[in-house]
């Protein structure tokens, strides 16, 4: 017996999305092409019925800041309250954790050479909450528990795409050895290409974004050819959030993946926004 990995859900997490939801702007011309990508995600989740979500994302100063920034941090809490880190977004519903599964994953990661930070108290920001608001609108309580895994995409030196993929592979091994038939969805949150500051503020690289979307399912190794510094040059300094997607892909395992749905739209608040669902082929 082991956990059943039902597939992966990948989504951008631009704070402006939360503002659009709060204002009810989903049908406005600026936002509609983006929000139109989510009904197929919701349909797939309703059919797949996950129990737990393993979420790879990046913290934006809510738990960690430049003076103390772990490369990888894994939540092992019973619950994860949401807080706004300064965007003026509504406070979203608290997430329930799965501490037993969290500790099992942590033990596998440490055993695999990943010196992770273990968080028995942890808040979650827009990067984790917005993909859930998009996938499960208007629910009274989140229908899944979570294991959050935060990856440093802010403070140099950053982990490489290869290292993040290997992190995901170690999570996959943990799920394979989990003695429970828990249904697991893996989530990668962030991206795609964007840069928010400096002389290249507003930079988007649609060619690189489509390269990532085209290869993530069945040739993820193609995304590992670049260093993190090269990704920042190609996709923008905040475009390095693609490592969250890469880690999530690693957690799906090495078997072939079928693309269930894809949506790509530019721009959303100076960001290339996308969603993607993969399921075992």
From TrEMBL:
GO terms for molecular function: dioxygenase activity. Transmembrane segments: none annotated. Residues 8-271 form the Extradiol ring-cleavage dioxygenase class III enzyme subunit B domain. InterPro entries: Xdiol_dOase_suB. Gene3D superfamilies: LigB-like (3.40.830.10). It comes from the Bacteria. Coiled coil: none annotated. Keywords: Dioxygenase, Oxidoreductase. This is Class III extradiol dioxygenase family protein. It comes from Novosphingobium pokkalii.
